[in-house]
Amino acid sequence: MFTGKRILVTGATSGIGRAVIDDLMAQDAQVVAIGRNQERLAELARSGGERIETITCDLVDFAGYTALVAGVTPLDGLVCSAGIVENNPLRFFSLEKYQRTIDINQTAPLLLVAELAKAGKFRDNASIVLLSSITGTEIGMKGTAAYAATKAAMAAYVKVMALEFAHRNIRANAVAPGMVQTPLVEGSHQLSAEAIQLDKGRYPLGKRYAQPPEVAAVVRFLLSEASSFMTGQNVVVDGGFTIQ
User: Fold this and answer.
1) Alpha helices in the chain (DSSP H)
2) Which three-class secondary structure state does DSSP give residue 45?
């Protein structure tokens, strides 16, 4: 399905990004992996061999995007998975936290897509997938105003990208997971183990959080020819959480 296809993935070294890369390499795709952790990128390079190219990059170094994009060969797909979440309640609001969240989660994917487009790096029939969330697009959550705004932005971005790129048959969609069992969630100090277990019970399908490969499979669908007439959509993957 992906033989000969070249896909760039940000947030490549952990969580959903890593699961997407593993999934794509299993489908024989050529992957360009972008991340900040050099040790984990080196591990990826060793496991992927000739199927993977790694680029160490801090995505908030916006001034370096032109050089970054110049070194990228034409792409059949892009997955923007890099992101952070920080608790930032309005009563104790931190502008620094807010700006960091906006920079990484919202500005970086938009600028990367724009620079790749300006440089002619998307092939005809390419597919762009942004990682959204049910937070901000479907539900609210205390303490996450900045995060919710950035994820709602992903759902908005793909509508605009879909229209601007349609003349070249380039599609743009977002994936909106509920909670996913990633290192980010496992290492969270915002909720106790008891609170997390209680929250999992609110997910009808299995009383659990999604596993990263389950989200990666939906990303793969949106990158593939199987979704050839889908564009501008925000696809919810939440085990039935938001239908209650």
Assistant:
1) 15-26, 38-48, 65-70, 95-102, 108-118, 134-137, 145-165, 183-186, 193-200, 212-223
2) helix
Domain count for the chain, please give it: 1
DSSP secondary structure code for residue 180 in this structure = B
| pLDDT single digits (tens) 122-170 | 999 999 999 999 999 999 999 999 999 999 999 999 999 999 999 999 9
Q: Which structural domain range is residue 213 located in? A: 6-243
| Residue 1 placed within a domain | no
Q: Is residue 188 part of a domain?
A: yes
Active site residues: 147, 151
Select from 57, 54, 75 the least CA-distant residue to 66: 57
The residues facing 193 across adjacent strands are none
**Per-residue pLDDT tens for 163-185?**
999 999 999 999 999 999 987 67
Which CATH number goes with the domain that contains 56? 3.40.50.720
